[in-house]
């Protein structure tokens, strides 16, 4: 009896049979590299706090453990029918958590975090990070229900009215938080997931979401030009988006118009580019970055890529790009193998989630697009983003395990 209980407990601490091991180990490798770079980056804080490195390491380890446990739980317990039944309760809890930061202090131009004071340090939690995997599984669960209830397939509204309501509510709260990055990611995830099914009633919605995304990309690029910048500056006078104009201006001219700009709104993007240029392709070596010593106030989060490139050069950037490439390849590989729509939605949505973070972070740090404050998943400091990343991996592993156990085994027979 004791052996059976021990065996049951050990099975809960492992990913399910049929998992994708390469996906698992790639996420771990990226996390280990990111954690190492976070510790290296925080060497710059040792002058003001002797315990800075230890505190950062313990916080990173704690969030990793929480994320890993949630990954294991999602990989074994995720169920479309259960999520569909509990969707309203899950939405209400998540929305309430997202509203809480609106009553807190503003940090880096946003009110998106819940701060927990632990005495020697403060831990921040960003509930909006969980809206991203939540929308993936929510949309997938409603497509799951539509496959079992033919009446839901009559129109896009019948299939997606509750997910659309959830998306609209999240948009309002995220706008009030002034978190443009989270808004962009949630929007791309929702619009991307809607593209996956081939239900005839969805074609009009799919066409319009593609047009909206294409128009949004064009407007962002136009906003960085001499034609669009004056319009962006006028729009910045509106409530909730006042901080956006400076990010467009920084992307259009990261070094500013004169020397004084380098100590104003161009301070962060200019120092990020200086750090990248200082890498001399091969990097200055681990610990060799000068930009982490007070030049970048968000050196371990939004701008950690600049530190990574300055210290490790093309090798560190190549490692990160290869890791993300493996994640995307494995997720899309199974998405194309399965014929079950909810599985396709989860895997495609998960791939889009990682890809969007990768592109928006690298584009923002290199000033190719306006900075959105989106973290580089598995690499940037930010415990909630790490937990959300592993939760997404766990959800995808659940789907992959089901594909391997059921669909691929039946094909072999």
Automatic annotation (TrEMBL):
<feature type="transmembrane region" description="Helical">
    <location>
        <begin position="182"/>
        <end position="200"/>
    </location>
</feature>
<keyword id="KW-0812">Transmembrane</keyword>
<keyword id="KW-0808">Transferase</keyword>
<feature type="transmembrane region" description="Helical">
    <location>
        <begin position="21"/>
        <end position="39"/>
    </location>
</feature>
<dbReference type="InterPro" id="IPR001182">
    <property type="entry name" value="FtsW/RodA"/>
</dbReference>
<feature type="transmembrane region" description="Helical">
    <location>
        <begin position="377"/>
        <end position="401"/>
    </location>
</feature>
<keyword id="KW-0472">Membrane</keyword>
<protein>
    <recommendedName>
        <fullName>Probable peptidoglycan glycosyltransferase FtsW</fullName>
        <ecNumber>2.4.99.28</ecNumber>
    </recommendedName>
</protein>
<dbReference type="Pfam" id="PF01098">
    <property type="entry name" value="FTSW_RODA_SPOVE"/>
</dbReference>
<feature type="transmembrane region" description="Helical">
    <location>
        <begin position="212"/>
        <end position="232"/>
    </location>
</feature>
<feature type="transmembrane region" description="Helical">
    <location>
        <begin position="303"/>
        <end position="329"/>
    </location>
</feature>
<keyword id="KW-0133">Cell shape</keyword>
<keyword id="KW-0573">Peptidoglycan synthesis</keyword>
<comment type="function">
    <text>Peptidoglycan polymerase that is essential for cell division.</text>
</comment>
<feature type="transmembrane region" description="Helical">
    <location>
        <begin position="350"/>
        <end position="371"/>
    </location>
</feature>
<keyword id="KW-0328">Glycosyltransferase</keyword>
<feature type="transmembrane region" description="Helical">
    <location>
        <begin position="51"/>
        <end position="77"/>
    </location>
</feature>
<feature type="transmembrane region" description="Helical">
    <location>
        <begin position="130"/>
        <end position="147"/>
    </location>
</feature>
<feature type="transmembrane region" description="Helical">
    <location>
        <begin position="89"/>
        <end position="110"/>
    </location>
</feature>
<feature type="transmembrane region" description="Helical">
    <location>
        <begin position="159"/>
        <end position="176"/>
    </location>
</feature>
<keyword id="KW-1133">Transmembrane helix</keyword>
<comment type="similarity">
    <text>Belongs to the SEDS family. FtsW subfamily.</text>
</comment>
